[in-house]
Amino acid sequence: MSAIETPVKLNAQSLSDAIEKMIKNHLKKHNKDIVDLYKLVIEEVEEPLYKCAIEHCRYNQSRAAAILGVSRGTLRSRLKHYFDDQYVGSRD
After folding, report:
1. SS3 46
2. Exposed, middle or buried by CB within 10 Å (0-12, 13-18, 19+), for 86?
3. What is the pLDDT along the chain (92 residues), one digit of tens a residue?
4. Which of 60, 57, 56, 61 shows the shortest CA–CA distance to 78?
5. What is the CATH class of 36-92?
């Protein structure tokens, strides 16, 4: 389970509103144990972001990179970092 684990009802909220609520809840819950909040949030958000983008683009790396605003090389390295070879093919 993720480190920021409180479910949030998204209704008509913006993504940033939902994330803000989750971070505030996490801060209240783990007040004295928090170290490197920035790294925690980036790691919790980046993995599903890349997964959703590559799946949305039906595994087309060029399109996924374009909608994320990153290079295809960056996309491949982040996919490999989070998912090993699940989304990154190799030429054998």
Report:
1. helix
2. exposed
3. 455 555 555 555 788 898 899 999 999 998 888 889 999 999 899 999 999 999 999 999 999 999 999 999 999 999 999 998 887 766 55
4. 61
5. mainly alpha
Helix, coil or strand: residue 24? helix
pTM for the predicted model, two decimal places: 0.73
Q: How far apart are CA 84 and CA 62, in angstroms?
A: 19
| Nearby residues of 10 by Cβ (< 8 Å), 6 or more positions away | 18
Query: In 6-36, where does DSSP find H-type helix?
Result: 15-29
Cα–Cα distance list, 16 to 21, 66, 70 (Å): 9, 21, 20
